[in-house]
């Protein structure tokens, strides 16, 4: 089964959306009231970089990982800091947002933008599933 497409949103941005009524928090999901669309959210961090001088042997820099996954690997996360083994990382706290229901593969999403036999892609079409989800959310939030 394909991994669901997900978008990372910082806690600060999600707080802004909630405060301004753009989204409603419903347990482990958010809802766009104007679009009647729901999305699953999971606590996550974006790893900005390793700050203790030990390099990045775990290759976490510039990656987004769920807090659940990192804690299972032994990470301790407090606010904007994460310690894992003997390494310290600067992180951005936030959430992974994914479509509720059946996971949608990249191929299925790409099919929305490509017609059979067409060899030229629309230059304004999103280049990734994440960009597609981000555009959708921003469009609904701007209304």
Give descriptors for this structure.
single chain, alpha+beta, 8-stranded antiparallel beta sheet, 4 helices, 8 strands
What does this protein structure show overall?
With 143 residues, this protein is an alpha+beta fold. The chain has one domain (6-142). It is 24% helix and 34% strand. Strands 1, 2, 3, 4, 5, 6, 7 and 8 form an 8-stranded antiparallel β-sheet that branches. It is elongated, with a radius of gyration of 17 Å.
Low-confidence stretches: 102-123
Fraction in beta strands: 25-35%
Helix-strand string: EHEEEEHEEEHH
The largest β sheet comes out as: 8 strands, antiparallel
Derived structural class: alpha+beta
Number of strands: 8
- Gap from first CA to last CA: 35 Å
Q: Radius of gyration from the CA trace?
A: 17 Å
Helix content: 10-25%
Mean of residue pLDDT?
77
Put simply, the count of helices is 4
> Please, how many domains?
1
Cα shape:
elongated
């Amino acid at each position: 089964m394909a991994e669901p497409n997900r978008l990372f949103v910082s806690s600060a941005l999600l707080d802004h959306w909630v405060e301004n009524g753009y989204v409603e928090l419903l347990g482990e999901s958010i809802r766009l009231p104007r679009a009647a669309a729901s999305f699953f959210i999971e606590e996550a961090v974006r790893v900005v970089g390793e700050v203790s001088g030990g390099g990045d042997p775990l290759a976490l820099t510039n990656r987004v990982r769920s807090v659940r996954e990192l804690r299972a690997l032994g990470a301790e996360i407090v606010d904007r800091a994460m310690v894992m083994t003997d390494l310290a990382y600067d992180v951005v706290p936030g959430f992974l947002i994914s479509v509720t229901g059946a996971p949608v593969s990249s191929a299925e999403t790409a099919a929305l933008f490509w017609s059979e036999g067409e060899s030229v892609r629309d230059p304004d079409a999103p280049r990734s599933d994440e960009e597609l989800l981000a555009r959708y959310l921003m469009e609904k939030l701007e209304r």
